[in-house]
Amino acid sequence: MRAAVLHEIGQDKLEVLDDVEATGFGPGRVRIRVRATGLCHSDLSAMSGVLPQPAPFVPGHEGAGEVLEVGEGVSNVKPGDRVVVCWLPACGVCPACKRGQTELCLAGFMNAGTPNFRRAGGDVFGFAGTGTFTEEVVVDAGCAVPIPDDVPYDIAALIGCGVTTGLGAALNTADVEAGSSVAVIGCGGVGISAIQGARLKGAAEIVAVDPVVSRREAALRFGATRAVSPEELPGAKQQVTGGEGFDYVFEVVGRSATARTAYENTRRGGTLVVVGAGAMDDFLQLNMFELFFDEKRILPSLYGGGDVLRSYERTIALWRAGRIDLAGLITHRVPLAGINEALEQMRTGAALRTCIEV
C-alpha cells in the first residue's frame, strides 16, 4: 500500500512509497482505511525534531476513515463504521483517567514507540502511535472513535486534532468569560478554532495576531473582532484594553518568544493559555517577582484540556447546529501524492488546513 515516509529526522520532504505494510493487527486492534487526513503543524515539528519521534516514520495524526477489520475483543467498532483516529486515547484505569483528566493519559504516548508499519528494509513507526499519511493503518481499539455517518471524512479528520485542541483551549482550559477581551497569537487551524471557541463563550473583543495577511483575513471571518500583525499588537492592546492587557491570551505557536509576548500582553490577574507544542530545549523565562506580583495564571492546554470523547461529541453537535464552521478551515486539498505541496502550504502559512485525500 501507499504511505508517505520520512526516512530521517531533519529531512523536509516525504517520500510516497507503495511498498509499505500496516502491521500489528490482532486482539484489541483495528484496521482502518484512511479516507481523509489533515496536516497539523505538529507533523512538521516531528519531522524537524522539535517533537520527539523515532524514525523512519509515517507522519499524520489527524485522520478519519472506515473500519476494515477488528481484532478479537474489540466491541466499540465494527467493520464499515466511520471513525475518527484519536492519537491520544484514554486507558480508563491510570491515575489521570480516574481523576477525570483523560487528556493526560500516557497510553497513547507509549504507542509511539511501537512500529505501525513495515517495509522490506525494516520497521517504520507511525507518528504519535498512528500515522495517517497512508491508505491503511492499524491502531489500538481506543484510537478508533465511531462517529455518525452524516459527518464527512474531511470534517471528521479536523475533529481528530486541530479543532478539538483549539476549541477545547477556549471552552475547557480557559473557560473564557462572557464579555471578556481575548488575544490569539498564531491563527492557523488551531488558532482559528480557539477564536471560534472564544466567540462561542461570548468574548466581547477577540484580537487575532498573525504575520500572514490571509490568516488575519480568515480570522475575521471566523469571529475575530480585529486582526493585527505581531508588530501591531501593542497598538491593539492599547486600543482594546487601555494598555492594561487582555483578559485571556492564547499562545498557539509553541515558541518561548511568543509565549513571553503573550505573557506581557496578559493583564495582571489574567490568563495565559499555552496551546502550541514546543521543543524541550526552548525555555520560557519569567522572574519570580513578576510571577508573584502580577498573579497571572499560566495554563497549558494539551489536546483541548478535557475528555476527548466528550469533546468530539460536543464539536459534532456545534457543527450540526451551525455554531462553528469546520468546512471553512479547509483551504486546500491535495492527494497523498501531493503531500509535499501540503507541507509547503503549511510552512508558508498559505493554508489554514490542507486536507489530504487518500
* pLDDT < 50 runs, ≥5 residues: none
Distance between the termini: 11 Å
Helix content: 25-40%
Mean pLDDT: 96
**Helix run count:** 12
Strand element count: 19
Largest sheet: 7 strands, mixed
Over the alpha carbons, how many angstroms does the gyration radius reach? 20 Å
- Shape, principal axes of CA atoms: globular
Structural class: alpha/beta
Question: What is the beta-strand fraction?
Answer: 25-35%
Query: Quaternary state, please?
Result: single chain
Summarize the structure.
This protein is of the alpha/beta class. The chain has helices spanning 41-48, 95-98, 107-111, 153-159, 162-174, 189-200, 213-221, 233-241, 256-264, 288-294, 308-320, 339-348; strands spanning 3-5, 15-17, 21-22, 29-38, 57-58, 62-70, 82-85, 117-119, 122-126, 136-140, 144-146, 181-185, 205-209, 226-228, 246-251, 266-274, 297-300, 330-335, 353-357. Strands 4, 6, 7, 10, 11, 18 and 19 form a 7-stranded mixed β-sheet that branches.
How is this structure best described in words?
With 358 residues, the chain is an alpha/beta fold. Helix content is 30%, strand content 26%. The protein has helices at residues 41-48, 95-98, 107-111, 153-159, 162-174, 189-200, 213-221, 233-241, 256-264, 288-294, 308-320, 339-348, and strands at residues 3-5, 15-17, 21-22, 29-38, 57-58, 62-70, 82-85, 117-119, 122-126, 136-140, 144-146, 181-185, 205-209, 226-228, 246-251, 266-274, 297-300, 330-335, 353-357. Strands 4, 6, 7, 10, 11, 18 and 19 form a seven-stranded mixed sheet that branches. Strand 13, helix 7 (213-221) and strand 14 form a beta-alpha-beta unit. The longest helix has 13 residues, at 162-174. The termini are close together. The mean pLDDT is 96.
